[in-house]
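Notes from the 1:1 (GR / supervisor)

We went over the backlog. Supervisor wanted to see one worked example end to end before approving the batch request, so GR pasted a single chain during the call. The sequence is below; no edits were made to it. Supervisor asked that the structure be written out right there so they could see what the output format looks like.
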Amino acid sequence: MEKLKIVFDWFPNTIHAGILAAKKNGEYEKAGLDVDIEGQVHHAMDPSTTDMICGPEISMLMNMEHGVALTGIAQFTQKCDSGLVSLKSAGISRMKDLEGKRLTYWDLPWYHPAVGYLVEKDGGDYSKVKKVMMDVGDIVSTLGTTADATWVYENWEKYALLDAGKEVNYINFGDIDPIFNFCAPAIAATGNAIANKADALRTFLHVTDLSYRRMAADPEKILEVSDMIPEASSDNMLVAGAKHLAPIWIDENGKWGRIKPAMWNNMADFLVKKNVISKRREKEFTNEFFDD
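Structure output shown during the call:
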């Protein structure tokens, strides 16, 4: 039995459903893999004790900039599910509307160049946005109290708010500029795993691909792993999020996980332009661990 460890970018949530289902149903084990799953590491991409790590492409590129041996090997969705959520009462229906409003942010070098670009593209002044540094864990208790808007994954925070009876506005960043239709979240393999566990990575992605295809075909299957997603507020929230993800989990060929070069390259080139990273690197990502 080949051992593989994957570390999620956050606690297990809707986006991870295909991996969780393959684990619970014994599909990895049947394929000869002993897959260990860990979570709770939002933005902390330490590859030293794992084979694969989940997170946004931006964080992967930042780690590569600092000499960490990582290569993107899969993306969870074929359209980036990332954007700005706010309560409808805050009146934020476009990026310019953030002027004078409280926006949470992470203390990371790419955050302000990214969001500032989107605000200014819409004719706004990012210096007029009130920044609140915090890593939001509970979006329901945060919006309307500590902050007015937060950068989130739509499939989780938006549906948590709706499940709590809130009326919300959501802006998908990729709809504003294709640069922001990037690989988030994605899966990266460590240099050690690529060198020493290539066959196991191929098997993992094959099994995971098939699991996500089944989940996309019947999003209510997510209820089979609801016990593995304890942070969900209800089954209704899980099903609503999975139904939202179903059409973007798979590509135009009905497959999961293949990295679209344009999605990766547009953001990587943007980060170079904004001096967030110094240069592009060879083998930032690959699809070579898929069957085709």
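Supervisor's comment: The radius of gyration is 19 Å.
Batch request approved.
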